[in-house]
From TrEMBL:
Transiently phosphorylated on a His residue during the reaction cycle. Phosphorylation strongly increases the affinity for substrates and increases the rate of nicotinate D-ribonucleotide production. Dephosphorylation regenerates the low-affinity form of the enzyme, leading to product release. This is Nicotinate phosphoribosyltransferase. It comes from Tannerella sp. oral taxon BU063 isolate Cell 1/3. The lineage of its organism: Bacteria, Pseudomonadati, Bacteroidota, Bacteroidia, Bacteroidales. Pathway: Cofactor biosynthesis; NAD(+) biosynthesis; nicotinate D-ribonucleotide from nicotinate: step 1/1. The keyword Phosphoprotein applies.
Length: 386
């Protein structure tokens, strides 16, 4: 069994689950697997994945994990912990089909329930692929991780480990986090993985994903999506978990909605696509224009970063704001194999009262990374005058 603990998942899935059950408990959704790299999967992969999915029904929140989350995730209320204690994964929500080397995975059901599937499914697909193709970590994998950790420490680059979804294996991620904690304690902020945060006594890191904004676009309309998503988030968390994600409908559109109110309420922003240098200057200019000291705000850079990119960004920022780095695959799948280029994305939603499912889209700041129906993407662009 690949996923062996209920909390072997990223914090942002729990944080959005809490917000969903408070704001949109009756919303239904559809997620789909996207094989961006067009990797062919070996014979029998679909059946093996199905067995892993079915095994998820045995997982539950343990008393130990609950105690850890109550201590570290103080922004969750008692009602949410009651929900988590009674929650069980329903494998019937997941459809797995394999035709030759082509893999199709779909998740369908109530949003507050199905939201927890994405990260473990991706981790399962990644680890299972390497098992079934006979891949093994390079002998120097741990040495690579130590060298990176020492360089992060030298750079003074504050780091959060974000590598659950495309990790080589749980064991590799566990080992890497141990190395990071040993070699760069001064600049390691935490990990997105709640279970590994508990094992290594770190802070679980994360706020919200793109799907929060994508849903609001379908529910309320693209012109007000960013503002409504921020307002609902603040209503649930009252200022906690305050790093806003600006690139669901491009950061150009986001900054039109990021009023002084939200700029003061949110602790900062996450740069997850596009040119990080342009984004830095835009954020600095925005905060200064609204008479906010940028040095008191945080930007989390998280778009496929390696050491060279982090060094360049840190040099460009030059202390003008608080820069933090979210690093994933570069740490948890740099073991001598090619990481899978895969995602699981929200594709359709059905808000309460709707009779039909509505398409959702994401307009990245990076060309070629838009997701969703092409006609709906075109409609969204025209509505937002992009």
């Amino acid at each position: 069994m690949i996923i062996r603990d209920f909390t072997d998942n990223d914090l942002y899935k729990f944080s959005i689950m809490n917000a969903i059950q408070k704001k949109f408990p009756d919303a239904e959704v559809v997620y789909r697997f996207v094989n961006r790299g067009e990797t062919p999967f070996p014979e029998g992969f679909g059946e093996a994945l199905r067995r892993e999915v079915d095994a998820m029904r045995t997982l539950f929140l343990t008393d130990t994990a609950e105690a850890f989350m109550r201590r570290r995730c103080y922004y969750f209320d008692n009602v949410f912990f009651d929900l988590l204690k009674g929650f069980r994964f329903n494998p019937a929500e997941v459809t797995v089909v394999q035709e030759g080397g082509r893999l199709e995975v779909e998740v369908r059901g109530l949003w507050y329930r199905t939201v927890l599937w994405e990260v473990p499914l991706m981790a399962m697909i990644s680890e299972l692929y390497y098992r079934m193709t006979g891949a093994t970590p390079a002998a120097d994998a741990d040495d690579r991780a130590r060298a990176k950790a020492r360089r992060f420490e030298e750079l003074g680059a504050e780091l959060s480990e974000f590598g659950t979804r495309r990790r080589f294996s749980f064991e590799v991620q566990d080992r890497v986090i141990g190395i990071l904690k040993e070699c760069m304690p001064r600049v390691l902020n935490g990990t997105s993985n709640v279970y590994l945060a508990m094992l290594h006594d770190l802070i679980p890191m994360g706020t919200h994903p793109h799907e929060w904004f994508m849903y609001h676009g379908a529910h309320y309309g693209y012109r007000v999506a960013n503002e409504m998503a921020m307002e609902n988030w603040v209503d649930v968390y009252d200022g906690y978990l305050g790093i806003a994600l600006p690139d669901t409908f491009t950061s150009t559109d986001f900054f039109k909605s990021f009023s002084t109110k939200y700029a003061k309420l949110f602790d900062g922003l996450r740069c997850d696509s596009g040119d990080p240098f342009e984004f830095t200057e835009r954020a600095l200019s925005y905060y200064e224009r609204h008479r906010i000291d940028p040095k008191k705000k945080t930007v989390v850079y998280s778009d496929g970063l390696d050491l060279e990119a982090i060094a360049r960004i840190k040099g460009h920022v030059a202390g003008r704001l608080h820069d933090v780095y979210g690093v994933g695959t570069f740490l948890t799948n740099d073991v001598g194999v090619q990481p899978l280029n895969i995602v699981i994305k929200l594709f359709e939603v059905k808000p309460k009262g709707e009779t039909d499912f509505l398409p959702v889209v994401k307009l990245s700041d990076s060309p070629g990374k838009h997701t969703g129906d092409p006609d709906e993407i075109d409609l969204c662009k025209r509505m937002l005058k992009l």
